[in-house]
Design goal:
The protein has helices at residues 28-36, 75-87, 160-164, 166-177, 216-228, and strands spanning 2-8, 11-17, 46-51, 59-65, 70-71, 97-101, 104-110, 115-120, 123-134, 137-146, 151-157, 187-193, 198-205, 210-212, 236-241, 244-253, 256-265, 267-273. It has 285 residues and is α+β, with helices and mostly antiparallel strands. The chain folds into two domains: 2-117 and 267-271, Roll (Diaminopimelate Epimerase, Chain A, domain 1); 123-261, Roll (Diaminopimelate Epimerase, Chain A, domain 1). Helix 1 (28-36) links the parallel strand 2 (11-17) and strand 3. The two termini are 12 Å apart.
Length: 285
Amino acid sequence: MQYTKMHGAGNSFVLIENRNGELGGIDPAELARLLCGKEKGPGADGLIIVTDAGKEADFGMLFYNADGTRGEMCGNGARCLARYGVEHGLAEDAENIRILATAGLVRARRITEEQYEVRLNDPSVIDLHRKVFAAGKEYDCAYIELGSPGIPHAVVEVSAAELEKKENLRERGRMLRHSEAFPRGANVTFACIMGEHAITAITFERGVEDFTLACGTGCGATAVSLILRGKIPGNRVEIDMPGGHLSVSICIDGEGVHDVLLTGPTAVVDRGETALPGRQTNKEL
């Protein structure tokens, strides 16, 4: 099976195609655990399976976390997939790339060879002040779901000093990620406001069960929560994550919040061949 490994601001993915039934009866969850692990696979934060979407979109996207759990969508993954679709002739128009994800239709466009923008799924749930209890403490979290079924995100504001204590935040993220306040669990983003439109953030992602170098939908949820809370003026946020810089803009009007646009870099890391479970390949990883 041919694969492509890509990353968006450090958020890494293995992409494989199943537009013509290439996977047969292979369990995609098992495949995700195999390919995202570094012992037998290329290693990544998640697996993206490129599928046929018929007339609904240019192509489809099935996303699996590194532990094999299914994800509704992935912002940085969608940006990488948009570039993949353009470079492999799957997208009819690089200015209007249509991707069908579990969370709904995602539109993307090429800005430069490396820079891609995606329109994240509109928020279906916005709770700006959800009280969450963990380890005997109360936390004021914003809870945002992007899409339907929504990608669950909790956003917690922290100070610059707290952000530097990564080990402390990792444990806090682990506790909040599994809180009963979030029925399906949640990705937890810790955000520190650094300037009028500038944020530094880090996300503890469910399915990876650790911090990742970047989280696209986490950036989208963070922008929505901080702008609606009145912490960031206007409709634009510049976010520095450990793996790189991402930009988010949103539209707020009488219809609510929509057009959550995520922009940032993409990169192709590797292309190769890997053995599927129960099959052989002539290339040893």
